[in-house]
Amino acid sequence: MTLPDRPAQGEQAHFRALESLYAAAPINRLFESTLEIPTAGVARIHFMIDERYFHAGGAAHGTSYFKMLDDAAFYAANSLVTDRFLLTTAFNLLFTKPLKAGPVVAEGRWVSGQRRVFVAEARLIDSEGEEAARGTGTFMRSRIALAGLPGYRVAP
């Protein structure tokens, strides 16, 4: 995997602004989680699973899996785009283990694409360090300017 050439100047500010955008999204009031973008093409979401997210069988419902996998892959891809908000156009996921209560990390990484369509993947790691699910998505540039979104704040 080769990341596209990107100027280092302003990159960290973009990452922090994306983290702020994630925190400001109304959906994230339902999921106690934090986004971390350590480097271009990589995103991590730390979150807790508890009984509020369980289905009748006593494990996390698939909505939790999808939301965190999609977000981690999305932000990994959007870390490479400084002007536009990306949109998910497709997302496939594979469930490999039921998630029980405890901390979970969604790790996303950019795979390919540098212009209009991006491919990124993500995996969920449970509190025992085991993979519980993985997913791959495609993301496309939208007409929505990042700078115009509430929550996207670039520090001077």
Inertia-based shape? globular
Structural class: alpha+beta
Read across the widest sheet, the strand sequence of neighbours is 1-2-4-5-6-3
* Tally of DSSP helical segments: 2
The proportion of residues in beta strands is 35-45%
Spatial separation of the terminal alpha carbons: 32 Å
Structure description:
The protein is of the alpha+beta class. Helices cover 20% and strands 40% of the residues. It contains two helices and six strands. A six-stranded antiparallel beta sheet has the order 1-2-4-5-6-3. The longest helix is centred in the middle third of the chain and has 17 residues, at 62-78. The chain is globular. The chain starts with 10 loop residues before the first helix and ends in an 11-residue tail after the last strand. 31% of the residues are buried. Mean pLDDT is 93; it is low at 1-6.
Key phrases:
6-stranded antiparallel beta sheet; disordered N terminus; alpha+beta; 156 residues
